[in-house]
Amino acid sequence: MTPTRSLHGRLLTATGWVRGDIHFDRRITAIDTAHDDPREDHEVPLILPGFIDLHVHGGAGVDIMQGGDAAATVARTHARHGTTALLGTTMTAHEDDIVRALQGLAGAIGTRGPGMARVLGVHLEGPFISIERLGAQPPLVVEATMEDVRRLHAIAPIKVLTLAPEIGQHQALIPALSALGIRVQLGHSAGSYADGVAALQAGAAGFTHLFNGMTGVDHYHPGIATAALAHAEYAELIPDLQHVHAGAIRTALRAIPKLYCVTDATAATGMPDGEYALGVQRVHKCLGCVRLATGSLAGSALTMDQALRNLVSLGLDVADASNRLSRYPADYLGIDDRGRIAVDAWADLVVLDAELRVRGVVVEGDDIALD
Questions:
Q1: Residue 299: how many CA atoms within 13 Å on its side-chain side?
Q2: 3-state SS assignment for residue 14
Q3: Domain housing 216
Q4: Which helix (H) or strand (E) holds 259?
Q5: In whole angstroms, what is the distance from residue 171 CA to residue 207 CA?
Q6: 273 or 155, which is more confident
Q7: Is 80 exceeded by the pLDDT of residue 94?
Q8: Which residue windows are coiled coil (predicted)?
Q9: Which residues, in sequence order, are CB contacts of 155 under 8 Å at separation 6+?
Q10: Alpha-carbon distance 254 to 212, whole Å?
Q11: Domain with 137 in it: what CATH number?
């Protein structure tokens, strides 16, 4: 049993900023705003809900597709940057390789070890995508069937599934996938605006790394990204300021009410420049970018604390930026006890200084060692 503890700071609660004490064991037990503190606001730490990253491939030199204990290593790496919950994300690969990754993830989902973020489930990013919009995915795509998905879902719970809606019977599968509790996202797609709209009407819930790996915004031939801007409530976006131009990020922020941010982090995250695995492919980290040998971007080396700072640099206030890294991803998954500071929510917290640098992380009441 975790003993009751307290932290003092400027708290971003579910109803806005307050200055006071938060009391918690595994969950938040009370929020006390009566504490008298003579310090200026900039001298008092900020306490935000822990970040929730719904698209994570790797970190610390390991890739989710390796299986085994890779997911645990990834969860520990990202926890040190304020991520308190995440989805382990797969790559397009042969089914045996995907099964190996899911078996490894199943262990991490079932047990949160010391120093780990909570692994909530799986984001199955491949193989049900378009050969025309692979991005950094290998050309091992297949058309989905419900039998395929149920077989994989039985190994480890799929929370998010990326689908190219224009392929075969994919659009017809969306209602059944949604009925399994899977959030269907449109991505790695060569589909049209009409394909995107029809998929949303069928029950698709979001978009995978908006603008990247999809048809775009063309006023004569609008694509999947246009459908997102016109109709989406939710979409994920990589705010490393490399995948998407700042102007396009601002456009999406105005258009999509609950745009939320992900890292799309690879094994290169937290590592020096060099060569790393991304599924069966090799990627190169240099000057903060992760690329294939062709020069194409291939995931990122982003962490969620840096994502927060990047959003603030674009003009978002801290509360808005925080919502896009915590509350909106939780809402998207239908989770009401994470991604917010409220009584009875999990004690998932990130403590920041005035420069938005991480000074403490708490996952389900447990302190995370930062070094």
A1: 28
A2: coil
A3: 51-338
A4: strand 258-261
A5: 14
A6: 155
A7: yes
A8: none
A9: 99, 102, 103, 106
A10: 18
A11: 3.20.20.140
